[in-house]
Amino acid sequence: MHAELIDLIDRLRLKGMQAALDRELLRAEKEGVAASEVLRGLLMEEWRYRQERSLLNRQHQARLPWDWTLTSFPFELQPAVSKAQVMELAGLAFLKRHENIVFIGPPGTGKTGLAIGLLRNALTAGLRGRFYRAQDLLDILYASLADRSTPRAIKLLSSIDLLVIDELGYLTLTAEHTNAFFKLMEERYGKKSTIITTNLEYEQWYGLFNRKELVDALLDRLRHRCTTIRIQGESLRTPTQNNP
75-230, superfamily in CATH? Predict the structure, then answer.
């Protein structure tokens, strides 16, 4: 019977149950546990295993570049950041409202660390997310023009619950880059949340994208439901330490 159970569990790919089977059967034998309790224990182990695997899969797909979290962020070293405001955002209510977040500030002040921390919270909550360097994302959209896969790429990116676009700054852009980025933000507007980190104030975006009418429309949509956090503190980076 034991061999048959192992075989059936293996066929059904119940990895969580497989790892807990011997332990639960031994507990039942020693403690006289009811069959229903053994089954509950096995099902709980399977559920826990699948939750862990699902989270690992979401984290892998999100392409998080560092292991930063909000709990590891050095708020005490960056008084320009309101910990209370960030912790409120960490509750993820902004995702339910399909609101955006824009971090504006000089390099090294913690913008990326905060964005990654919020993204990690969303992944832990069971949501899908993705981290992109701004130039990489724009280059992907630009490359999709060659095989006319841009609509498919934008549709995929528009379905992500939380999209983080990092380092929107002094980039190398063409008119095609600008058009594709605007189309992506237009598709996400009012449906999904986006976090952008940048060293440029909003009025400087006109020089970046060089299309006034498109930037007007972009900012109108982006800022309609948006929390803007400006960080003007000291850089957290030192020659011997890699901080957010």
Answer: P-loop containing nucleotide triphosphate hydrolases (3.40.50.300)
Which residue in the block uniquely carries the two structure tokens 């989270």? 55
The tens place of each residue's pLDDT in the chain, 244 residues long, gives 567 777 777 777 778 877 887 787 777 778 777 767 777 777 888 888 888 999 999 999 999 999 999 999 999 999 989 999 999 999 999 999 999 999 999 999 999 999 999 999 999 999 999 999 999 999 999 999 999 999 999 999 999 999 999 999 988 899 999 999 999 999 999 999 999 999 999 999 999 998 999 999 999 999 999 999 999 888 887 654 455 6
Residue that the structure tokens 């979401």 belong to: 58
Backbone angles phi, psi at 147, to 5 degrees: -110, 15
Give the CA count within 13 Å in the CB-facing half-sphere of 122: 29
**Domain residue extents for the chain:** 2-62, 75-230
